[in-house]
Design a protein that fits this description.
Helix content is 22%, strand content 36%. The protein is of the alpha+beta class and 376 residues long.
Length: 376
């Protein structure tokens, strides 16, 4: 028997109530460090990527008949080492896997520093556990080599298979190598132009930008900072590198009270999750909501042949389908000026998380939900 009735009201109520409890303390604005609100323009990470081979696997590597690029890579590597393979040879490799190596080159990284790297299988290898990554060049978006990677792959999972049975814990085709890459080339990073640096807010907001300008000018004097728009703030800084670094250290430590965020509701259409921030309010509206349930009851029906007739017993399945529709009711939702009131109003409807997606969209269309809807 399968019951498809949406009886998740209690879970929906608990989830929304917990969300309200977690978000209620955020109502009072609090100061944050400037380094948490903004970053210095030009100070950024750069993604690196490389193609390499992992060897030493215990028979869990790529199936070379289905991944010919693995064989080509091995032949090319051996050729560079002075070993020429005969043409047309069919190599059966079980202990080699083709992988992609990725990492991020942080700002101000210098040659000789080490980076953590992620090794991901790109073929059909069963596991990278116990493998060793061979020397792999890591390139940037400009095609230049900025690092070299090599080392033993650490996989956080485990698995076993025998006689058709298989058991696995976590992921086996992705691993990490701590300090597995060495920086070979530095990326020049300019801290501003002349006596000016630029701060970029992580979230564009004119009110927060204005507050940052006021806080910086109060700390370092008038005319030190000026906002160019809702995201970029121009700051006058010392010309000397030593003084500029000290200035940036003091600048990042300034406490700024950010402006209240925009009212926003995030809805996940795949999981039915609904998250809203403290600024969400609700105008008076009426909502009609009803439940629809489908009950499927399947029972076996056995047809027994007569004695000595030579027939066979036949088993069939007979299903009974019943659809129940609860009468809808109209619920009046009053004005709600706080998140707790909004959660209480939505819980009073008795809707499941999936139903809330449609109800909130209808509220937004009617103009009663004062928030921006974002579906992910």
């Amino acid at each position: 028997m399968k019951n498809l009735s949406p009886s998740l009201f209690s879970r929906s109520a608990r989830a929304l109530a917990c969300a309200a409890c977690l978000l209620l303390p955020l109502g009072a604005a609090h100061a944050e460090r400037l380094k948490d609100l903004a970053s210095v323009q030009g100070v950024r990470e750069n993604q690196l990527i490389g193609y390499g081979l992992v060897v030493g696997l215990d028979g869990s590597g790529d199936q070379t008949t289905q991944t010919p690029f693995t064989v080509q890579s091995v032949v090319s590597m051996l050729k560079q080492m002075g070993i020429n393979m005969p043409a047309g040879i069919n190599m059966q490799l079980k202990n080699v896997a083709a992988v992609m190596v990725t990492t991020s080159l942080p700002a101000f990284a210098q040659p000789g520093q080490t980076l953590d790297i992620t090794v991901s299988s790109m073929g059909n290898a069963k596991s990278l556990r116990g493998g060793t990554l061979l020397m792999t060049p890591l390139k940037g978006a400009d095609g230049q080599i900025y690092g070299m990677a090599q080392g033993n792959v650490v996989v956080g999972g485990a698995g076993a298979a025998a006689n058709g049975s298989k058991a696995q814990i976590n992921h086996l085709s992705v691993g990490r190598i701590s300090a597995g890459a060495t920086v070979e080339r530095a990326v020049p990073t300019a801290l501003g132009q002349g006596d000016t640096i630029f701060l970029e807010l992580k979230e564009s907001d004119f009110s927060t930008a204005s507050r940052v300008v006021d806080a910086v000018n109060a700390r370092f004097g008038p005319q030190t900072a000026a906002a160019q728009d809702g995201r970029v703030i121009r700051v006058r800084a010392p010309l000397s590198n030593d003084e500029r670094v000290s200035f940036l250290g003091a600048l990042e430590s300034i406490n700024v009270t950010p402006a209240q965020v925009r009212a926003k509701v995030i809805m996940n259409a795949r999981t039915g999750s609904v998250v809203m921030n403290q600024a969400v309010t609700l105008d008076a509206c009426a909502v009609s909501h009803g439940n629809l349930s489908v009950v499927i009851n399947t029972q076996p029906v056995i047809s027994q042949p007569a004695p000595f007739s030579g027939g066979q017993t036949v088993v069939t399945q007979q299903s009974q389908i019943e659809i129940n529709r609860d009468p809808g009711k109209v619920v009046l939702l009053k004005n709600s000026a706080s998140l707790a009131d909004v959660v209480k109003a939505l819980n009073s409807i008795g809707a499941t998380p999936q139903d809330l997606l449609a109800i909130l969209q209808a509220m937004k269309a009617s103009g009663s939900l004062r928030a921006e809807l974002e579906i992910i």
